[in-house]
Amino acid sequence: MSHDAHPTTIRILLADDHALVRRGVRLILDREPDLEVVAEAGDGAEAIAMARTHEVDLAVLDIAMPRFTGLQAARELAAVRPGVRILMLTMHDNEQYLFQALKAGASGYVLKSVADRDLVAACRAAMRDEPFLYPGAVTALIRNYLDRVRDGEEAPEQLLTPREEEVLKLVAEGHSSKEIAELLFISVKTVQRHRENLLHKLGLRDRLDLTRYAIRAGLVEP
């Protein structure tokens, strides 16, 4: 395998009950040199069976499937293949689904209507352990967050350096480490170190948490 031109191919399990949707999604994914669909399923139960027999890095699951929804499959997959990343594919721009998907362990939520634009980026983000959400989903999370803040969840006191604050603001606005490095004239490594420090200092887990914190601290507009 070490002679493979692309040793870091992301192996994908694709589950959707519509064969046409599967074919379309597969075309989008297989066009990319680092993405490969290695298993397909027509429902959640089949997806779990496939995950047992195939080495997969990432599962792209339709939320609404017969027999076993994508949400149920996501929870089950975490048990069958710990470490497998999960993306939800959905027709619905629906807040309820979004929160359930995140609770079920999905690291991204992609609308089918813009899959040709968003799906590849979402797959790569998932493999980097970065959340991927379409803009409407971010708005929903922020709204939910602000409601919780209003109900008395207080912002921790200021403990960031001005540079960390700049990095935090840019992360919250959705810029990549590379873009932040260019904007601040520092190396990508330095940006990543700042991100790590921010997460550590603020006791947060990921970019979503950072974004919520930045909004709460008044660094970015909700």
Automatic annotation (TrEMBL):
<dbReference type="GO" id="GO:0006355">
    <property type="term" value="P:regulation of DNA-templated transcription"/>
</dbReference>
<dbReference type="InterPro" id="IPR058245">
    <property type="entry name" value="NreC/VraR/RcsB-like_REC"/>
</dbReference>
<keyword id="KW-0805">Transcription regulation</keyword>
<dbReference type="InterPro" id="IPR001789">
    <property type="entry name" value="Sig_transdc_resp-reg_receiver"/>
</dbReference>
<keyword id="KW-0804">Transcription</keyword>
<dbReference type="Pfam" id="PF00072">
    <property type="entry name" value="Response_reg"/>
</dbReference>
<feature type="domain" description="HTH luxR-type">
    <location>
        <begin position="153"/>
        <end position="218"/>
    </location>
</feature>
<dbReference type="Pfam" id="PF00196">
    <property type="entry name" value="GerE"/>
</dbReference>
<keyword id="KW-0597">Phosphoprotein</keyword>
<feature type="domain" description="Response regulatory">
    <location>
        <begin position="11"/>
        <end position="127"/>
    </location>
</feature>
<protein>
    <submittedName>
        <fullName>Two-component system response regulator</fullName>
    </submittedName>
</protein>
<dbReference type="InterPro" id="IPR000792">
    <property type="entry name" value="Tscrpt_reg_LuxR_C"/>
</dbReference>
<keyword id="KW-0238">DNA-binding</keyword>
<dbReference type="InterPro" id="IPR016032">
    <property type="entry name" value="Sig_transdc_resp-reg_C-effctor"/>
</dbReference>
<dbReference type="InterPro" id="IPR011006">
    <property type="entry name" value="CheY-like_superfamily"/>
</dbReference>
<dbReference type="GO" id="GO:0003677">
    <property type="term" value="F:DNA binding"/>
</dbReference>
<feature type="modified residue" description="4-aspartylphosphate">
    <location>
        <position position="62"/>
    </location>
</feature>
<dbReference type="GO" id="GO:0000160">
    <property type="term" value="P:phosphorelay signal transduction system"/>
</dbReference>
<dbReference type="InterPro" id="IPR039420">
    <property type="entry name" value="WalR-like"/>
</dbReference>
